[in-house]
Write a structure and sequence with these properties.
9 strands; 5 helices; seven-stranded mixed β-sheet; Glutaredoxin; two-stranded antiparallel ribbon
């Protein structure tokens, strides 16, 4: 059962490794705004467009006090390849057990060609300096996601 998060709620804890195997948590982003974006899979067309749009606008995010963290079920090695291939300036979390996606309510039943399966609902959470959810973007425009956020 996934929970539904609302604006103003405290952001759920994160305990997941990034592409370098470093354990990451929400606490390290206190005092900054955090763009926490969930996406289905590294190196697929929509996910690549979204990551590259965030990359291309990264300096705007930094200037406005934002940090960016991507989350998908891919492992650390896949994340490293994805970051290297597209020169991504932000970290990606390897949510291989879907614990972070479950905590944020984005691990959902999906359907493709009549087949049902569990996967990530592409969603972005903007978390404020105090660790509270400020904005939830469920209808992500992968090619212009930065403008949706900023």
């Amino acid at each position: 059962m996934t929970q539904t998060l609302e604006i103003g709620a405290k952001a759920p804890q994160i305990n997941a490794k990034d592409q370098n195997g470093k354990l990451r948590s929400i606490e390290e982003f206190k005092g900054k705004k955090l763009v926490l974006y969930f996406y289905p899979k590294d190196d697929t067309p929509g996910c690549t467009a979204e990551a590259c749009d965030l990359r291309d606008n990264y300096q705007n995010f930094i200037a406005k006090g934002y940090a960016i963290l991507g989350v998908s079920p891919d492992n650390e090695a896949k994340h490293q390849k994805f970051i290297t291939k597209y020169e991504l300036p932000f970290d990606l979390l390897a949510d291989t057990d879907n614990a972070v996606a479950l905590a944020y309510g984005v691990w959902v039943e999906k359907s493709m060609y009549g087949r049902k399966y569990m996967g990530i609902a592409r969603t972005t959470f903007i978390i404020d300096e105090k660790g509270k959810i400020e904005q939830i973007i469920e209808k992500v425009n992968t090619k212009a996601h930065s403008s949706q956020i900023l």
